[in-house]
Design brief:
It is built from 11 helices and 8 strands. The mean pLDDT is 96. Bound molecules: 3-methyl-2-oxobutanoic acid. 3-methyl-2-oxobutanoic acid binds next to β6.
Length: 272
């Protein structure tokens, strides 16, 4: 039976492996709260990422660096309460895993225990090998993240495409193979050339999920608020907007203001 036709009641890390083997693309979106996560899950998404992009879209910070582990736990708990089918993956935020492997494990355990997440995501390759191993040895599923890793934005200096040069591309490929060897169940590749992403997806057996990494990978992820058009300033080439939710919301709210001011709302059917 082709896994493309298989319907999953509940997505697990194994389901994602099966999807890659069957050539079925994996769909992934972010969510940060109960109501949005409920809608995303009802639409049959495979993976919901409680991304540290919450720092940008939920809190208005310029980078992902300020969000804390406690704040991630708040978002993750709300998402987990809403989700019936999707695999819920939660980002380890900046500062919660870089100091030492023990701290990385402690942070991961809090995410799994207090929020009820199904897996964690962590940025980086060989530099975080020991932390990755420690977390995996505790039985916690880990998704890797290579390419543009926003927690290192002050090291990169810009949000431009990564790994265009041969040396960086070669390191990324080696990091991807290392993450597979360590036991990561999947890998996100952000903003790298499509040809390199294809090469990585072919070189590893774990699912490779791209964002700005072309179509020859095993799945795609976008930030929910970007693809719904709730954020308006951010327009990279890889972003497809499926709605203009910001405009639709503003129009609806303007209409509400008008109705209140004109005493049109509430009418006799809308009162007790
Ligand atoms: O935090 C996030 O939203 C992410 C995605 C861009 C993959 O890491």
């Amino acid at each position: 039976m082709s896994a493309a036709k298989k319907s999953y009641k509940r997505i697990t890390t194994n389901s994602l492996t099966e999807m890659k083997q069957a050539g079925e693309k994996i769909s992934m979106l972010t969510a940060y709260d109960y109501s949005m996560a409920k809608a995303v899950d009802a639409a049959n998404i495979d993976v919901i990422l409680v991304g540290d992009s919450a720092s940008n879209v939920m809190s208005g910070h310029e980078t992902t660096l300020p969000i804390t582990l406690d704040q991630m736990l708040y978002h993750a708990s709300a998402v987990v309460r809403a989700v019936k089918r999707a695999l819920v993956v939660v980002d380890l935020p900046f500062g919660s895993y870089q100091s030492d492997p023990k701290e990385a494990l402690r942070s991961s355990i809090r995410i799994m225990k207090e929020a009820g997440a199904h897996a964690i995501k962590i940025e980086g390759g060989v530099e975080i090998k020991d932390s990755m191993t420690r977390i995996l040895n505790a039985g916690i599923p880990v998704m890797g993240h290579l390419g543009l890793t926003p927690q290192s934005i002050y090291k990169f200096g810009t949000y431009t495409v990564r790994a265009k040069e041969d040396a960086e591309a070669a390191k990324l490929l080696e990091d991807a193979k290392l993450l597979e060897r360590l036991g990561c169940f999947a890998l996100v590749l952000e903003k790298i050339p499509a040809g390199l992403a294809e090469q990585v997806a072919k070189a590893v057996t774990i699912p490779v999920i791209g964002i700005g990494a072309g179509n020859e990978v095993d799945g795609q992820v976008l930030v929910l608020h970007d693809m719904l058009g709730l954020t308006t300033e951010f327009s990279p080439r890889f972003l497809r907007r499926y709605m203009n939710l910001y405009d639709q919301m503003t129009n609806a709210i303007q209409q509400y203001v008008k109705d209140v001011k004109s005493s049109d709302f509430p009418n006799t059917d809308e009162q007790y």
